[in-house]
Amino acid sequence: ELSRKLQLNASLRYSEFRVRSSSNAYYEEDGKSYPIYLPLGFDADNVNFVGAYNLTNTMQGLSLQPTLSYKVARFGKFDVSVLAGVGFDYFFSYRVKGDLNFLSVLKANLNDSDFIRKFNLSGISGLSVNYRINDQFGVGVDVNYRYFVPTGATDGGRQSSVLGFGLGVNYFLNRKEEE
């Protein structure tokens, strides 16, 4: 804690982002069928068209998030804070799953992709509620909005922001005594 109301936070988070979309075709490669998701590419010589089906795009990664928070209210051991900061993200997995039972999960190679980068930077703003267990530990929940800064080839129409939430255990360093 920097003062009674101001706090510097740092968190390491596992993140899993899921986005729903749809397709009406799949392609075959090496005896397997895969959903077509245009940004990831596909084998144009082996395309089969079907009725529309749902896709679930899942991206997994780790994020280091230093933030500054300002306490706006306190209720006993609970406090409510607004927060702002940055996120440094490393994405290690991107999968696309179609809801047709014969489709295999399409796994993107992030080293070869210009669709998504492994390393990303984001701005964070949000609201957190914390419960202080004792002078050194607490638990918290936050809701935040993250805007990802473009880091390479991008499609101008693609939204690069996300609304998320987090749960955590807080460890307090250098806590100043309240007067």
Can you describe this structure?
This protein has 179 residues and is mainly β. It has no helices and 8 strands. It has strands spanning 6-29, 32-35, 47-75, 78-98, 106-107, 119-132, 137-149, 161-171. Strands 1, 2, 3, 4, 5, 6, 7 and 8 form an 8-stranded antiparallel β-sheet that branches. The mean pLDDT is 84.
SSE layout:
Blueprint: E1 6-29, E2 32-35, E3 47-75, E4 78-98, E5 106-107, E6 119-132, E7 137-149, E8 161-171
Antiparallel strand pairs: 1-2, 1-3, 3-4, 4-5, 4-6, 6-7, 7-8
Summed up:
This protein is 0% helix and 66% strand.
**What fraction of residues sit in β-strands?**
over 45%
The helix/strand order is EEEEEEEE
Give the termini distance in whole angstroms: 14 Å
Contiguous low-pLDDT stretches (5 residues minimum) are none
- The global form is elongated
User: Helix segment count?
Assistant: 0
Average pLDDT rating: 84
The whole-angstrom Rg is 21 Å
Name a few traits of the molecule.
179 residues; mainly beta; single chain; eight-stranded antiparallel sheet; 8 strands; 0% helix
